Amino acid sequence: MKNIVKIAFRNIKRQKKRTFLLGGAIAFGILIITVLNGFTGGLTDNIKENFSAIFGGQIFITGSEIKDSGRIVSVIRNDKIIDEAVKPVKDEIKSAHKHSRALAEVIFGSKTDRQRIDGIDWNVEKDFASSLPIVEGSVKDLSNPKVIILPVSTAKRLGVEIGESILVRLSTITGQQNVGDFILVATVRDQESMGISTGYANIDYLNSLLGMTPGEFQVYNIYLKSMENMDSVGDAIYAGLKKRAATEERLVTTPTANDNSDATDSARRKNMRRSFASLMGSSFFNAKNIEPWEGTKYSLITLNDMMGEVTAMVQVINTIGLGIFVLLLIITMVGVTNSFRMTILERVREIGTMRAIGMQRNSVRNIFLLEAFFTALAGAIAGLIAAGVVMFIVSRVTFSSSSFMWFFLRNGRMTFTVVPVNVLVNLVILSLLSLLAAWNPAKKASKMEAAQALRTEY
Q: The pTM is what?
C-alpha cells in the first residue's frame, strides 16, 4: 500500500497543470460553501446577540392581569412563582433581572419623540450600566431616581444636552396618561437601524409613573450561560410556570390531537404578539374574545421563538448554498472523469509495465482512485485556507452604524461562524464524488492486459 501511495503522489506531481486546474476548481467550490455557511452561522449568532442586547436577555417572562373593565394589564406583582419555576435550571442561568417598560413620548421644549424606556434597578444591575455604549455623559452616579439615559439620535432630534431636564409622557398600566420629569445624564449609541431604540431610567420612578408600586415589574429577563441551551431551559421554566399558575400557550407548543389546529395556532400567535408587545413596552390590551382568568397569567418567550423566520431563512440559504456546491462539484467531477480518461490513454504503456511486473488489478485501480482523492483533498485544504483568508479580511471591515446591515453585525463588523460538522459533511461529499468520478476510468485501467497495453501506441 505504501508503494501505491508513493506512485499516486508521483503521478500528481508529474501532471502539475492538470492537478492545479482540477484542484483549483474543487478549492473554489469549498471556498464558496465554507464562506456561505460561515456567513449564515455568524449572521444567526449576531442577530441573537443583538436581540439579547436590545431586550436584555435570552428568555423573557411577562405577566398579565385581567381587570373588570375588560383591560389586560401587563404587570407581575410577586416573583415567588417565577423563582420556583426557575429553581431547577438555576445552574444554567448567568443572571436574571426585573424590568419595567414603557412606550413613551419624550418632550423637550417644543420638540417630541417616541421612545421605548426600560426601568432598571441600577443598584442591582451595575454591570449593565457599565456595559452601555456611552457616547456622551457618565453613568458613574445614578443615585438620583430621575436620571435618564437616551439614545444619541433621540437626544439630537430633541436638541437636549447632558444635564438638562425633559418631560416624559406615557400611559399607565390601566390606560391613564401620566407625565414625569427626568434629567439627561448620558447618551448611548442607538440601534435604530434594528428598528428598536431604548432609553433607560430608574425602575422605581418609572413604576410610579406607570401606576405600579416598588417591587413590581413587567418583564423577568434571563441571561443564560450558553445560548445553546435556550430551548431546553425555556421549556423547563415554562413547565414550572404551568404547574403553578395560569400560562399563555407558547407558539412552539405542539398541538394536541383534540386541538383545532387553525384556531389553536391563531390563538398562540395572538399570545405571542401580545408577549412581544409587552417586551416592547405596551402596558395594556383589550380583553375582547379572551377567556378571563384569576390572578397573574404568565407568558414565556425566547429569542429562538422570536427568530423562527430568521432561522428558516438561514436554513433556506444553507440549502441553496449546498445545492450550488454540489452542482459545482458535479461540473468539476465531469472534468475529473474526462481528465482521467485522457490520463489513462497517455499512460497505457506505463500501466502495461506495472501489470507486467506483477501489480494486481486492484492496485492499479487504487492508484488512480488515490490520485483523485489526493487531488480533491489538496483542493479542499486550499479552499479552506482561501475561505479563512476571505473571512478574515471581510471581518476586518467596519460598517457605518447607520448601515442597514448593522442588525446583522457584531460591533459594526461581519462575523463568520464555521461549524466543524458542516465542513466535515462538505468534505465527505467532495471525497465521495471525487472517487465516483474516477471510478470508471480507474476500473478500465485495472482491466488492461499487460501485453496488449505494451503494444498500444497513441
A: 0.69
